[in-house]
């Protein structure tokens, strides 16, 4: 069994790994208007650099997940984080929006290694309800990234340009890679590694895609992520351009939304003492649909001004916070024999669907109404998939299993 102190350190580092992707996405959000002006381009083009990051995160997980099943967790993790560091450094000298977009894809690819390996390690070490609790605890650490990242980005903009944000991201990648190399052991024994090449990888993905419940759960996770990233991609324009807030004021509002999401993930741990993950998700998704409908109404009518947007938006984010830990836990519990590949497909769908949400907000007008429609649409679609495809009332109850020992 894992000593409590070692378990705490490992969970903390896994949270830092999972935070690398959100940190990469969120830290430059206050810079979007400045990048638009400095590179003499359009808001939609700059938002595509965000889409590029999400695409890199999605594709990178499909690539790295099977590699982590074949070669263990540590080597793909450290190699991918190194790619993130190098691409972050190159973003500092990007001459235009096209080169910045390409480098952001590479950043996403590097961050994908951290994300998918963290999820796979949770599945290596924990099961069922215990995994849901760990995912909730990881969300506490992950949540620090959205809270701090825009604030750090705003502070960096006080003394340098948007390029300085990428210097900070490169240094953060170096620090996370060093801590991971020092703390994290290998959690996948050689005997359990899957060295079956491309044919074996294709067979694993094929088996996953024929599991209706698993596919439904990862779609729910992806559509909930789409609602979140519609807010992420549109919020800086809505609050800074639409409501004339400063970069620092926007960072505070963004932090408030992140705190609500974090609080919901931690409340989920207490809820799991009485209810199953599927029961919690059922209520959260329905409440998210109702809050999303109110958000669209206030965005269209202007009722309540800034508060009319912030209150229902905060409720939607809280409901996403309840759904996000439970969907992965239920999905990964079905395929422990190929945890890396299952986590990769889950992450790819999450970030891939999120990548579609970002430009959709831009195409609809980069305003409060556009953001609200995509946020609410993501919640409606997630709820429909959950009840029509996953069919939560037919899922078996999950029981906690003992935590396995670490592989040294």
TrEMBL record:
Location(s) in or outside the cell: Cell membrane
Topology class, membrane: Multi-pass membrane protein
UniProt superkingdom: Bacteria
Residues of the Major facilitator superfamily (MFS) profile domain: 10-395
UniProt keyword terms in alphabetical order: Cell membrane, Membrane, Transmembrane, Transmembrane helix, Transport
The keyword Metal-binding is annotated on this UniProt entry: no
InterPro entries named in the record: Efflux_drug-R_Bcr/CmlA, MFS, MFS_dom, MFS_trans_sf, Sugar_transporter_CS
Name listed for the protein in its UniProt record: Bcr/CflA family drug resistance efflux transporter
């Amino acid at each position: 069994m894992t000593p409590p102190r070692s378990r705490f350190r490992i969970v903390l580092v896994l949270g830092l790994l999972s935070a690398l992707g959100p940190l990469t996405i969120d830290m430059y959000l206050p810079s979007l208007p400045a990048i638009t002006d400095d590179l003499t381009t359009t808001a939609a083009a700059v938002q595509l650099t965000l889409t590029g990051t999400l695409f890199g995160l999605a594709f990178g997980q499909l690539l790295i997940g099977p590699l982590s099943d074949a070669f263990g967790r540590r080597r793909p993790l450290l190699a991918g984080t190194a790619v993130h560091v190098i691409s972050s450094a190159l973003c500092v000298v990007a001459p235009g929006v096209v080169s910045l977009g390409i480098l952001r894809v590479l950043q996403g690819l590097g961050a994908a290694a951290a994300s998918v390996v963290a999820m796979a390690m949770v599945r290596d070490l924990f099961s069922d309800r215990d995994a849901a609790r760990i995912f909730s605890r990881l969300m506490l650490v992950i949540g620090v990234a959205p809270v701090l990242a825009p604030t750090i980005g705003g502070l960096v903009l006080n003394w340098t340009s948007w390029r300085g944000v990428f210097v900070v991201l490169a240094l953060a990648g170096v620090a996370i890679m060093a801590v991971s190399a020092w703390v994290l052991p290998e959690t996948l024994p050689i005997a359990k590694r899957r060295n079956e090449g491309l044919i074996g990888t294709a067979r694993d993905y094929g088996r996953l895609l024929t599991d209706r419940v698993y596919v439904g759960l990862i779609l729910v996770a992806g559509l909930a992520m789409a609602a979140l990233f519609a807010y992420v991609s549109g919020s800086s324009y809505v609050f800074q351009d639409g409501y004339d807030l400063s970069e620092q004021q926007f960072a505070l509002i963004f932090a408030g939304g992140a705190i609500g999401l974090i609080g919901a993930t931690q409340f989920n741990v207490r809820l799991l003492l009485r209810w199953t993950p599927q029961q919690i998700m059922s209520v959260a998704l329905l409440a998210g649909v109702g809050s999303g409908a109110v958000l669209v109404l206030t965005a269209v009518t202007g009722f309540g001004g800034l508060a009319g947007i912030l209150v229902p938006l905060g409720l939607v984010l809280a409901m996403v916070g309840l759904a996000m830990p439970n969907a992965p836990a239920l999905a990964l519990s079905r395929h422990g024999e190929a945890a890396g590949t299952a986590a990769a497909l889950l992450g790819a769908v999450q970030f891939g669907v999120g990548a579609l949400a970002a430009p959709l907000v831009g195409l609809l007008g980069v305003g409060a109404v556009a953001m609200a429609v995509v946020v609410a649409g993501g919640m409606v679609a997630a709820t429909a998939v959950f009840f029509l495809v996953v069919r939560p009332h037919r899922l078996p109850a999950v029981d906690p299993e003992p935590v396995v020992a670490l592989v040294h």
